[in-house]
Design brief:
There is one protein chain. The protein is of the alpha+beta class. Helices cover 28% and strands 28% of the residues. The protein has 2 domains: 107 residues; 138 residues, no CATH class. The protein contains 3 helices and 17 strands. A hairpin with a 5-residue loop joins strand 14 and strand 15. This is Flagellar basal-body rod protein FlgF. It is found in: Bacterial flagellum basal body. One of its GO terms (biological process) is bacterial-type flagellum-dependent swarming motility.
Length: 252
């Protein structure tokens, strides 16, 4: 009896983890450039001196769904969408370099460009800074130009360039902070960080949306909930059977 309970408990625990991943995907349906996290379950045989009549289950994260999201034409100069294999370099909270497809660039009061609070990296290194209060535009090659308040339009001048990098989907993996970084295998061949790629192009005034499909994610959430309920019913049934067996033994 206890073996059946342990097996069902393991399945219920992993189902809860899958629900957590699905909930995270649903929460990011409106996050620009978000890549849905994939989940999977795999069987783990119970090894021992007895017959292998049972298997346990464990969750695994095979990666992210790298399918591009739909383009949203915002007409905002600081919104950018990159070509399929392009990434924007940003500085993560721990100081390391991360990569994102989120092109919703913001300007802080001090003139620093950020994405979700992370400083945007310049082509020559360091965070991108623009003059305070200036009108900023971004060219297709990532060149940032600024026009100071009150200046004529013909005085606009380049002030920095975005660090645009190129990476295959298999070369990057998502970290706990949501930023993508090179895998260990990719670092062995390309170094700890990616170099700027002049061939990468972007489109200003456009945002790539999240690739999460809300209807499919909701259906998966409902299915996971039903799987969890099924495992809990198994645990309850096994517990009832054990109680009745103990009652029969006490009567004898």
């Amino acid at each position: 009896m206890d073996h059946a309970i342990y097996t069902a408990m393991g399945a219920a625990s992993q189902t809860m983890e899958m629900q957590g991943v699905t909930a995270s995907n649903l929460a990011n349906t409106s996050t620009p450039g978000f890549r849905a996290q994939l989940t999977a379950l795999r069987a783990v045989p119970v090894n021992g001196e007895t017959f292998q009549t049972r298997t346990l289950v464990t969750g695994s994260t095979p990666g992210a769904d790298m399918t591009p999201g739909q383009l949203d034409y915002t007409a905002r100069p600081l919104d950018v969408a990159l070509q399929q294999d392009g990434w924007l370099a940003v500085q993560a909270a721990d100081g390391s370099e991360g990569y994102t497809r989120n092109g919703n660039i913001q300007v802080t009061p001090t003139g620093q460009l950020t994405i979700q609070g992370n400083p945007v990296m310049a082509d020559g290194g360091g965070p991108v800074m623009v003059p305070e209060g200036s009108e900023v535009t971004i060219a297709s090659d990532g060149t940032i130009s600024a026009l100071n308040p009150g200046d004529p339009a013909n005085t606009i001048s380049p002030v920095a360039k975005l660090k645009l990098v190129k990476a295959e989907n298999t070369e990057v993996t998502r970290g706990d902070d949501g930023m993508f970084r090179l895998t260990a295998a990719a670092q062995a061949t390309r170094g700890p960080t990616l170099q700027s790629d002049p061939s990468i192009r972007l489109q200003s005034g456009v945002l790539e949306g999240s690739n999460v499909k809300p209807v499919a994610a909701m259906a998966e959430m409902i299915a996971s909930s039903r799987r969890f309920e099924m495992q809990m019913k198994v645990i309850s049934s096994v517990d009832d059977n054990a109680s009745k067996a103990n009652q029969l033994l006490s009567l004898s």
